[in-house]
Amino acid sequence: MKIPLIVANWKLNGNENILTKYVKNLYNKFNNVKNINIAIAPPIIYLNILKKIIGKKNIFLCSQNVDIHENGSFTGEISAKMLKDIGVKYSIIGHSERRNFHKENYEYISKKFNILIKNNITPILCVGENIKEYISNKSIQTCINQISCIINNLGIKFFKNIVIAYEPIWAIGTGHAANKEHIQKVHKNIRKYIKKYDKKISESIIIQYGGSVNIDNVKDLFFQKDINGFLIGKSSLEINNFISIINNIQECL
Ligand code: PGA
Predict the structure, then answer these.
(1) Rounded to an integer, what is the distance from CA 218 to the centroid of its chain?
(2) Which of 92, 64, 67 is closest to 77 using CA atoms?
(3) Of the four listed, 150, 160, 173, 248, which is most buried by Cβ atoms within 10 Å?
(4) Residue 40 in contact with residue 8, Cβ under 8 Å?
(5) Which helix (H) or strand (E) holds 125?
(6) What 3-state DSSP class applies to 12?
(7) Ligand 1 neighbour 173 (Cβ under 6 A)
(8) Contact 38/246 with Cβ under 8 angstroms?
């Protein structure tokens, strides 16, 4: 069985005090756990502070964003090289909030993917359909389009050891997760699509689900064959909630 990866996506929330306490708590609770990987994605300015708490085992730092350049005159940006410099292991790219609010298109996300791989940071590539696409049965096709653009630009070898997060836009932050059969079907088809290019990669790739994951639905979702972890927003913000979610997953292992 693949080691599941659970990521807390803090988005634009938290402060130094809250995040420090949160990560200390997480560290005390899960420092020695071997069968689960946990990552925390705080607002970027807190990454370096949290680095001092997490140690080097199974709790990792994740960036919520990265620029397409390594350095230069790009005011306000953070590069993959800098993230690597402070020990970041994962970076979320293609999140629907960036696709929508920042107009990041397939090509742009593909450049981010490239720069992360070059700098040895694991991309967590978010894909997912909007409500219109869901209703018209285009969930799988939308996800495949988002993935195929990167495969076409960079090649399947770039997908070795990366993470894909299936996040239907209509399920994010709504309190209504997609149902488990739907998620399993999409995950299975993503894996099947990748298999056409490389069997080994398709078998080893971690496919997370994200969108209103909570204490009550996480076990049911995790029992699905092709769900290998979760990208969690709202339900990760409160430490006891997040710990219970991880405990629930551990009970399934
Ligand atoms: P949510 O967010 O858990 O609050 O739905 C998930 C995400 O956007 O990654």
Answers:
(1) 16
(2) 67
(3) 150
(4) yes
(5) strand 122-127
(6) coil
(7) yes
(8) yes
Question: Measured from the CB, is residue 234 less than 6 Å from ligand 1?
Answer: yes
Distance CA 189, CA 209 (A): 14
Mean pLDDT of 240-253: 96
Q: Which two tokens stand for residue 184?
A: 């399993």
Q: Is the pLDDT of residue 72 over 90?
A: yes
Choosing among 3.20.20.210, 3.40.50.2300, 3.20.20.70, 3.10.450.50, the CATH entry for 5-250 is: 3.20.20.70
Average pLDDT over residues 57-61: 90
Q: So where are the chain's domains?
A: 5-250
User: Which of 63, 91, 167, 183 is the pocket-test mutation for ligand 1 (most atoms within 8 Å of CB)?
Assistant: 167
Residue 232 alpha carbon to ligand 1 centre in Å: 5
